[in-house]
Specification:
- The protein is mainly α and 229 residues long.
- The protein has one domain: Up-down Bundle (Rhopdopsin 7-helix transmembrane proteins).
- 83% of the residues lie in helices and 0% in strands.
- Helix 3 runs parallel beside helix 5.
- The protein is globular, with a radius of gyration of 20 Å.
Length: 229
Amino acid sequence: MELKYYIYCLADLALITTSLIYGVKLLKKRNYLLGGEWLVVTFSASNVMLNALTGEKLFFNIALFCDAFSRAVGVPVIAVVGMMAVTHRYKPSIGADIAYVVGGLAVTVVVWTADFMVAPKPYFYLVMWSLYSVYVAYIVKKLLNIGANLIAAGAMLALVSAQTIASIDDFYHIPGDDNHAVFYTLAMFVWAYQCVVFYYVYCALERAQKNELNLNRGSAFGGLERTPQ
């Protein structure tokens, strides 16, 4: 086996590990949308590994469907809604969480199977990811506003690297990369990094939100104490 395939498997293992660990961490924070999307990535990457080890094409097809879900709605919609818990104080109900997932699956099936989506599908993926990148840029600004400069730099690196991967996927073929092993290796390392950094982005924004709430409560109680009797 060539060296690039060992690196390919290493990238896949990194993605499986990071998405699983940080997906579970997010579930423990009761963010079922964001944590669930990271576990979808775990499942996808696990099927990529099974395909690499067995050569069974079914596993790769399952991974491609999961990848379509993540690129079409999983990250651009579901993960964004999950992040809105710490950017806009928006926490949907369990019923709404289920509706987002079911709707996302329905959209993915249409994108994956409909004949009319064959030609526009790559552009659809790119537009959806670009909209997600705009939201990440907004997150970077919020991080800078609260003084989390290092985490903001990490998020910006994730934004640029993931947008680069999304922009060349389906549009540019790396010379000599006939089976896309090099591209998939880069993509999996980028996604693994993204799974890690956005957990810490989430935590930083969550802390800032709690500090703001405590400050507002303190101000309110202080105002009551100073109110003339």
